[in-house]
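Quick one, T. Sequence first:
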Amino acid sequence: MATLGNFAASRLEAETRSDSAGNIGKREMTIGEMAIEFNVSLRTLRFYEDRKLLRPRREGNSRLYSATDRLRMQMIMKGKQLGFTLTEIHDLIGNYESSDDFEGKLKPQQIVAQIDHLERQRAEIDGAIARLRATHERLAAAIAPREALAATA
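Structure tokens:
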């Protein structure tokens, strides 16, 4: 019969074997460790699991993330940086487990479509910034005479 002590010792031994085989840092991680490593919330990781983007191993109520999960998370983060939706990222990475080369999975037409999408977003943002600057200048110009009048009174 395995005891908790034996279980912990065998797990530590397995991690040590894994680390000595040149896989330092490849041990399973808790949800908290994953969140810290990728600078995301626990809720985000649970959401990605619900969306089938990550598949941590469950041990009771604990989630344990493997090296494959970390590669997938790197690909998710890269996809988000490039402006892809989670649905698009899911379709792109599928069950991909052997590399974190997100860009290598893109097709030329996907790249062109994403560039067009991001350029449209940039134009919208530039327009919003210009409108806000004009509004700020208009308000500042309206306030300046009142402040000058108040200073002389």
